[in-house]
Amino acid sequence: MKKQVVEVKINQAKLIIIQGDITKQDTDAIVNAANSGLMGGGGVDGAIHRAGGPVVLEECKQIVARQGRLPTGKAVITTGGNLKARYVIHTVGPIWHGGNKGEPELLASAYRESLKLAGENHLYSISFPSISTGTYGYPIDKASEVAIGSVITSLRESITSVKEVVFVLFDSQTFRAYSSALEKIVETGDRIPAE
Ligand code: ADP
Predict the structure, then answer these.
(1) Which fold has domain 5-188?
(2) Candidates 127, 136, 170: which one to mutate for ligand 1, based on the most atoms within 8 Å of Cβ?
């Protein structure tokens, strides 16, 4: 199968959308769609902990011991352990309750806080999964627009070391949703500068 890639430039940074397995990415950091307890779980969380090894969980436990459970929309950083990525940024997306419980703001915050943490750690590249659209039930068409919108806004509005943001989508349906969300934002001319 031909590998599909969508790529655009925002300020000095590249935004790339691919279909694949985030645990195989060699960006400086990969983002984990974690839960507040940071204890690992199913989906992408389980896959990242399996590939990263016990040292990732150990650092997560230390963080929770220090600062308590991670609130929805916030992010923390640990080593990448055995992963190619040097770091894992753990963030908690919202559980979908129908859309009136602040879900879009919380989802946008999860992306924004992850990027902020990457910048604070002087990272160049970061990979995101589709946060909240698995077990947490956020509809993919809505989540993809929030995700792409949030990342583009962050890249446009802040001076950051992050020059490469990759969305690594596991299945073709999710890949298509993110690709068309990007097209929509490009079409409406919202945030992408003509380059
Ligand atoms: P959440 O609890 O935030 O909904 P999930 O892990 O259940 O998180 O799902 C989030 C997304 O991650 C889903 O689209 C799922 O298909 C995807 N996913 C699962 N494993 C991987 C992986 N190894 N790489 C990239 N994405 C993955």
Answers:
(1) Leucine Aminopeptidase, subunit E; domain 1 (3.40.220)
(2) 170
